Amino acid sequence: MSDTVQTGKPLLEVRDLCVAYGAIEAVRSVSFTVQAGQIVSLIGSNGAGKTTTLRTISGLLRPRSGQILFEGRPIHTQPAHAILGMGVAHCPEGRRLFPKMTVEENLLLGAYTRKDEGIAEDVERVYDLFPVLGERRGNKAGLFSGGEQQMLAIGRAMMSRPRLLMLDEPSMGLSPIMTQRIFDTIRDLQRLGTTVLLVEQNALAALAQSDYAHVVDLGRTTIEGTGHDLLADQRVRDAYLGEN
Amino acid sequence: MSEVSTAGRTGLFRPLSTAGAVATVLGALLPWATFVFNEGPYPAKATLQFFDAPFALSGFRLHLMLFGLAALVVGFTRLPGRGRVLRALGWGVLAVSAVNTVFLISNGGGFGAVSASDGAFAFGCYVGLAGGALLVADNWHASAEPLPRWKFSLPLWAAWLVLLVSFGAVLLLVAATLTAGGLGGAADPYAGPVFLSFLGAAGGLLGGLHGTGLLSWIGELSEKHRLFSVLVLLLCALGLPLTSAGNEYWMTVAANIGVYAATAIGLNIVVGLAGLLDLGYVAFMGIGAFVAANLSGAAASALGIHVPFLLAAVIAAVIAGIFGVIVGSPTLRVRGDYLAIVTLAFGEIFRRAAQNNIGGLTGGANAIPNIPQVELFGLEFNNPVTIGGLQLPGGVLYYFLIVLLVALTMVAFGNLKNSRIGRAWIAIREDEDVARAMGIRTGKAKILAFLTGATLAGLAGAVFAHKTATVSYESFQFLESVTLLAAVILGGMGTIPGAVLGAALLFVLPEKLREFSDYRLLLFGLALVLIMRFRPQGLVPDRHRRAELVAEDVELPAAPKEATA
Ligand SMILES: Nc1ncnc2c1ncn2[C@@H]1O[C@H](COP(=O)(O)OP(=O)(O)OP(=O)(O)O)[C@@H](O)[C@H]1O
Ligand SMILES: [Mg+2]
Questions:
Q1: Across-strand partners of A215?
Q2: Chain B: residue whose CA lies nearest to A162
Q3: Given the DSSP bridges, would you call strands A220-225 and A195-200 parallel, antiparallel or unpaired?
Q4: Which of A143, A186, A132 is nearest to A162 (CA)?
Q5: What digits encode the pLDDT tens for the residues B516-563?
Q6: Which of A80, A140, A181 sits opposite B439 (nearest CB)?
Q7: Which of A163, B30, B77, B300 is the most exposed place for a label (fewest CB within 10 A)?
Q8: Overall average pLDDT of the B185-191 stretch
Q9: B457 with B320: CB under 8 angstroms?
Q10: Cα diameter, chain B
């Protein structure tokens, strides 16, 4: 793991974000940055506001206040399709595949905003990355196992050729071995040049893989540091790593 | 898979099924009614005594005889899918027997008509019902048998020949179904029950053929030779005037079905593909019809101008489309149930407005009558035509026009479904939230669905106006919207043959069941409830939905579970 220092213009910057569902303030004050090329994770307990933060970045929710800058440009006023077009892909919590559609149709929907010629090539690239999907490309997505569905969800998100890939709890419901495989894949994607913003309950696995991490607590970002540092941080160990 | 239920049933001899088949044959030969009805014998040779004239059977008793013999033969063979075939035949026998029994009892003034009176005995119906019940019960678990798959491939000419013969058979079946029971009225007093009984027999026949795997095979074949199939299908549709349905009356009925089929396909885009529940859809057809009526030069039209038909149809479609956008816009804000209410309200507003002759455009209670017939290429569409010595009945040109309309909407639907926007619609239907995350502009896509659906309905409305020559608000009631929706759901959401079949059934039934008009809606509702209970995917299910059901039967390659990976 590389202990990268945070320098240069960040790819994504979230400033003092506040998001509410009616009267419920799910996110009160979230601020963090994501440097290009890194894996950055947000960890925190249930209901901390992690999913809400991701949904706001991808334009599915509108913030009450605060700013979201992608490559220095504000995107929190842009519609979802425009944000995706800029290179921000969102792999939602719980995978949310189109279960009645085939693997291939799911992937093609991931490339919906693209109009270039390279789509078929990218479909093949996903099959190279996840051979299980390639072998069963004509099968309905709903018939796959949890781990395979997560692969497809990641593949689908990658089909938009994102520069920032946001993954919401990719290890949810997976065995330790499959979790490891998914994290290995995330590493591979990073190596190929994709920046990753990762939301995880599984703090131990997430921190071990992350270049940088933020703790979200009751709608606020609190502690931050490299994955390495947070793993060693006593407060994090007490609250999120199941130690007393 | 349920081996227990099929164990012991795989032997060659199936006593219960054989008994059912024999009972069916006996039922066909036994007398069915104890006396001759006032309106004429029902069924034909109703009181024929046992074995009086076994070769003189006709009508439903002939159907029963054939079904019984078929079941008898199939019961002694090792035909793959045998259980499915026997069960389908059983359902056919049950349906035919039940329809006729109920009719004999209700029209004959009680059970005396189907038991004993004045020294005459008639027990055919009980034996027939028992035969059907035995066949169904003995093969109740037939779904556990895999549907046979025909794998052999054919040379091109043979494949084309098979398709030609199949579609020709479909044409004959359609013609026979359409004309079953005759015109009704005094000439054919029993049109309703004869038609229903025929429907039961046709259903049993198709079910039986499906059970052998034949229909799936033909389906695959036609998918492989898509263009050829489409052409042959179009030819067959155009050939209907040459069959027993080739007179003015049936041409009119067929044309009406076609108009509603085209409209149903349009609705299928909105409901079946995009998943937007539209309860006021017939209003768009109404808008198209009134626009066309006002441009037709009819005396009652407000504009008093006569625009050529093709131009009028295009204008009607465009205006209906514009209304589609106006009604579709609120869908940006409302979801699900609320959308249904918005469209319901729109349908009601349209009907009220038309009833009150809004802007003098709809004629109110007087309607807009005497719309001139279509004249294209020097042909007057009401007249019979002679092509190369072939006498075709009046109304046949409208029929051709509407076949073209249906073909056009089919092509539009098929292309849209497999296009980018089609995929977006389906994604919105499945999971709107994720569709947005995929970058689909859901608002735009939904409005586009409304626009497309409304345009097609407007086009159908324009043809409808000229075809019926009178446009009245009464043709565009809530019930019509519901029936269209039912046609889409009944036939199978998101499929073309489904919408056509659904529309054909739902708009031909009222025509055929006029004598039951009091119970029509009840029967309708009952049929819908039954279909939704036993075949929720519709009569012709979508590929995706079908895949779901197949998945239960088929062994999938063992999926590596993450725990063992
Ligand atoms: N659609 C909604 N309407 C109202 N409240 C919501 C909605 N979605 C989330 N919330 C609330 O917002 C808060 C934050 O939810 P969020 O889903 O962002 O948490 P999270 O950090 O992703 O939790 P988890 O780790 O359990 O997924 C919670 O209190 C939740 O109940
Ligand atoms: Mg969450």
A1: A43
A2: B438
A3: unpaired
A4: A186
A5: 666 767 776 777 787 777 776 677 766 554 444 443 333 333 334 333
A6: A80
A7: B77
A8: 75
A9: yes
A10: 79
Alpha carbon nearest to ligand 1 atom 18, residue: A49
For residue A74, give the 3-state DSSP assignment: strand
Distance B293 CA to ligand 1 centre (A): 56
**Per-residue model confidence (pLDDT) at position A172:** 87
Q: H/E element holding A42?
A: strand A39-43
Residues of B in contact with A87 (CB under 8 A): none
Structure tokens at B516: 């039951």
The CATH topology of domain A1-84+199-244 is: Rossmann fold (3.40.50)
Q: DSSP assignment, residue A32?
A: E
**Is-contact B271 B486, C-beta < 8 A?**
no
Q: Are A35 and A11 in contact (CB under 8 A)?
A: yes
**B430 to A100: CB separation less than 8 angstroms, yes or no:** yes
Query: What pLDDT band is residue A8 in, cutting at 50, 70 and 90?
Result: low
Pocket of ligand 1 (CB under 6 A): A 21, 24, 26, 44, 46-52, 93, 201
Question: What whole-number distance in Å separates Cα of residue B484 and Cα of residue B268?
Answer: 9
Confidence of residue A53 (pLDDT cuts 50, 70, 90): very high
DSSP string, B174-185: HHHHHHTTTT-T
Q: Are the C-beta atoms of residues B456 and B269 closer than 8 Å to each other?
A: yes
Contact residues, chain A, for B427 at CB < 8 Å: 98, 101, 109, 112
User: How far is the C-alpha of B284 from the C-alpha of B294, rounded, in Å?
Assistant: 15
CA-closest candidate to residue A221, choices A187, A189, A205, A197: A197
Tokens of A71: 């490559």
Band of pLDDT at residue A244, cut at 50, 70 and 90: very low
Question: CB B559 to CB A146 under 8 A?
Answer: no
A–B CB contacts, 8 A cutoff, strictly below: 95
Separation between Cα atoms, residue A97 and residue A175, nearest integer Å? 20
Q: How far is the CA of A231 from the centre of ligand 2 (A)?
A: 21
The minimum CA-CA distance between A113 and chain B, rounded to whole Å, is 6
Q: Which ligand is nearest to the CA of A47?
A: 1
pLDDT band at B1 (very low <50, low <70, confident <90, very high): very low
Number of C-beta neighbours around residue B172 at 10 A: 15
Does ipTM exceed 0.90? no
Which residues in chain B are contacts of A142 at CB distance < 8 A?
548
**In chain A, what is the greatest distance between 2 CA atoms, to the nearest angstrom?**
55
Between CA B53 and CA B55 the distance in angstroms is 5
Nearest CA in chain B to A100: B544
Asked if the bond preceding B43 is cis, omega within 30° of 0, the reply is: yes
CA B374, CA B396: separation in Å to the nearest integer?
Answer: 12
Residue B150, CA distances (Å) to B137, B144, B202, B206 in order: 27, 18, 23, 17
Tokens of A198: 């990762």
Residue length, chain A?
244
| Cβ–Cβ gap A60/B437 under 8 Å | yes
Atom of ligand 1 nearest to the CA of A93: 27
Give the burial class of B2: count Cβ atoms within 10 A of its Cβ; 0-12 exposed, 13-18 middle, 19 or more buried: exposed
8 Å CB contact of A112 and B424:
yes
For residue range B136-162, list pLDDT tens digits in order.
Answer: 999 988 888 888 888 877 888 888 899
Radius of gyration of chain A (CA): 17
Instruction: Closest CB to A146: pick one of B434, B437, B562.
Output: B562
DSSP per-residue letters across A181-211: HHHHHHHHHHHTT-EEEEEES-HHHHHHH-S
Judged by CB atoms closer than 8 Å, whether chains meet at B561 and A108 is answered as no
* Residue A42 Cα to ligand 1 middle (Å): 14
Per-residue pLDDT band for B323 (boundaries 50, 70, 90) equals very high
Question: How distant, in Å, are the alpha carbons of A120, A196, B438 from that of A114?
Answer: 11, 21, 11
Q: Is B273 helix (H, G, I), strand (E, B) or coil?
A: helix
